[in-house]
Amino acid sequence: MNTTTAVAPRRRRRLELNASLVVGIALTIGFLVIAIVSFFWLPSNPNIPNIKNRMLPPGTVDHWLGTDGLGRDIIAQLMVGARTSILVGAGGATISLILGTIAGLVAAAYGKIADETISRGADIMLSIPGMVTALVLAATMGSGALTTIFALTAFFTPSFTRVIRSAAMSVLQEDFITSAKLYGRGKLFILARHVIPNIAGVMIVQFTLYFAAGILTEAGLSYLGVGVTRPSISWGMMLNEAQQTVGISSPLAMWPGLAIVIVVLGLNLLGDGLRDVLDPKLKRRS
User: What residues does the ABC transmembrane type-1 domain cover (predicted)?
Assistant: First the structure.
């Protein structure tokens, strides 16, 4: 009798570069480069006021996008804001991915009781408005990047759990899983050796989409004053500060808003492009 371990079929997919993927990669790389450069160089300190340079218009020498009401350089603030967006958006998405993957795999593989318990728990968490969670965390922990990451984790983990559970259950119904069970492979081995590699594409795509959602959510929370606050800087906080001078200098609100739109668009295009490459079936259905 052949005792060769049943191995999940490996599908070799040719990387088909489509417009969404190319544009998404370009915008995302640009975003990451700006954030990395901000660790080593900034045109000026984004937190030190310079009243004599307040409200300079775009195009001013040494302040190409102008300054805010306290004379702080807009470019410097946007660069540091990119760094904050990566920290908060990627942090929340990563923790949610880890927790959601564990919960989703347990729900899919460990029987009806585990499935019902985890699924109902996810339903309960999804029924709680995200803003309520953010306000409670801000009241108990104080505003800041860490609080925002916790809030994003609470927002995203139930959704990740549902997606991973569905994808894992689909893989667990395949014939090669039955073969692995016949060879006496345990659940942990099957999950690690067969299920996770086959849902890795789903995990990657979901991560990029929730990374974008995390940046957008963080901007909204910071705009409302329950997210990132100074001396940290975020694009949402810049929007909050800019609303006081909208009638005087509209570009103050335009620049962080434009940054949010470009980065979120880039990550969403990246996710759509990766989805088309990693799951051609979805592409054919659309």
Answer: 82-271
Specify if 42 maps to a domain.
no
pTM to 2 decimals?
0.83
Give me the amino acid identity at 175: D
With respect to residue 138, please indicate whether it lies within any of the assigned structural domains. Answer: yes
Cβ neighbours for 28, distance < 8 A, ≥ 6 positions apart: 263, 266, 267, 270
Residue 4 in any domain: the answer is no
Q: Encoding tokens for residue 101?
A: 């993957």
| Domain enclosing residue 124, as ranges | 73-162+200-285
Dig out the tokens for 25 from the structure. Answer: 């990669």
Domain membership of residue 64 (yes or no) is no
**251-270: pLDDT as tens digits:** 788 889 999 999 999 999 99
Instruction: Please give the Cα distance from 55 to 245 (Å, whole number).
Output: 9
- pLDDT tens digits, residue range 72-118? 888 999 999 999 988 999 999 999 999 999 999 999 888 889 989 99
Cα distances from 216 to residues 10, 90, 158, 283, in angstroms, run 36, 12, 18, 26
- Asked if residues 53 and 63 have their Cβ atoms less than 8 Å apart, the reply is yes
Q: In the chain, count of helices (H) and strands (E)?
A: 12, 0
Residues 199 and 142: their CA atoms lie apart, in Å, by 37
